[in-house]
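Hi L., both proteins are below.
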Amino acid sequence: MAYYKAADSKREQFRRYLEKSGVLDTLTKVLVALYEEPEKPNSALDFLKHHLGAATPENPEIELLRLELAEMKEKYEAIVEENKKLKTKLAQYEPPQEEKRAE
């Protein structure tokens, strides 16, 4: 009998935890949205994932990709700048375009 009370107590603690953290409200809202959907989606699980994904913090992998993108943009800008400098240097050593056409 004591075992059942301990299990009920743990269950009740977990339920309160979910309630305090807002999980129950969020799940309820998403399930209500699914219920009220005039045309039920083929995959209820995909519907839940889509609607829950919008409310959750971003995936850490996405943040890593954003950082990588920012680094690549910086490298790209540096390479473009270096390319401009090299073209300017090269122009000093090449004859003007009109002289090339005259030949």
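That was the first. Here is the second:
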Amino acid sequence: MKAEGREKEEKCEVCVGVIEKEIEPLLQDAGPFFGGSEEMTLAEVNVAPFLLRMYAFSEGELLPTSFKASLQKLPNFSKWADAVLKKESVTYIWDEENVISRTKRRVAQMKTQAK
């Protein structure tokens, strides 16, 4: 594995550790949304764009696939994230291919500029 790949893996492990420690317990009573709500709360509305990107980017090129796999091992978080990502109001304008390609271009630009 390249150094960059190892670095991504390590950073993703840290991120999952923080989510496990800080967020997982807060979702214990998610039913299916924060605080036992049946409808999305402000928490889901604010976090949904990040969930979309975290999961989409974890398909390999931008983030390691282990990131999504590790998130899915967190029982409260994965149940909650799945419920959020199933809402049409979250996904109706989501253009995954476009977001991924734009993000790849931005990352490549930043790498070029950093040289």
